[in-house]
Amino acid sequence: MNNDVISTLNDLIETCKDGEEGFKSCAEDISNAQLKQTLMAYAESCSASARELTALVIAYGGDPETKSSLAGSLHRRWIDIKSAVMGKDDETVLSECERGEDVAKKSYRHALEKDLPLDVKAVIERQYQGVLQNHDAIKSLRDRARASA
Predict the structure, then answer these.
(1) Which pLDDT tens digit goes with each residue over 41-75?
(2) Transmembrane ranges (predicted)?
(3) Which of 59, 118, 126, 127 has the fewest CB atoms within 10 Å, i.e. the most exposed one?
(4) CA–CA dist 98, 59 (Å, integer)
(5) Gap between the Cα atoms of 52 and 110, Å rounded
C-alpha cells in the first residue's frame, strides 16, 4: 500500500515540477509584464505543491522525486522550438501553458481514482482544485490575448 501511495505522490511531484518549469518558461516568453508576474506566481504555486507532496512522501517512508519528467522537458523544448518558428506572441505562449495544465489535470484525476489514505487524498483533491483554477485562469487569459490580437 505505501509503495503505491509513494509512487502516486512522486508522479504528482513530477507533474508539479513540470508545471513550475513550464510556467517559468512561459513567463520568459510572454511580453506582458502583468502576465509574466501571474505566470511566475503559478510557478511558485506549483513549487509549493511539490514541497507539500514531498513532505507526504517522507511521512510515508519514501524517497521523494527531485526532478521534472522527461515528458515535461520534451514539452518545454517543443515550446521553445514552436516559439522560435511561430514567434512568441502571448496567445501562443498561453496556449502552451494551458496544454501543460491539461496534462496536470489528467495526472491529478488519475491519482484521485486510486485507493489512497484519506489524508493523502485530501491534499491531492485540494491541489487538484488549484490546478483546475489555474487552467481556467490561463484559458481566460489566452482567450483575452486572442481577442486583442
Answers:
(1) 999 999 999 999 999 999 999 999 877 656 656 55
(2) none
(3) 118
(4) 32
(5) 19
Say which CATH number the domain at 39 has: 1.20.1260.10
Using CA of residue 78, residue 14, residue 96, residue 21, what is the dihedral sign?
Answer: negative
- Interval 102-139: pLDDT, tens: 889 999 999 999 999 999 999 999 999 999 999 999 99
Number of Cβ within a 10 Å radius of residue 106: 12
Separation between Cα atoms, residue 4 and residue 34, nearest integer Å? 40
Q: What angle do CA 127, 130, 133 make, to 5 degrees?
A: 155
Residue 82: give the domain boundaries: 2-148
CA–CA separation, 97 and 102 (whole Å): 9
Q: Are 97 and 23 in contact, with CB atoms under 8 Å apart?
A: yes
Residue whose entry in the numeric block shows the C-alpha cell 495544465: 101
- Write down the mean pLDDT value for the chain: 87
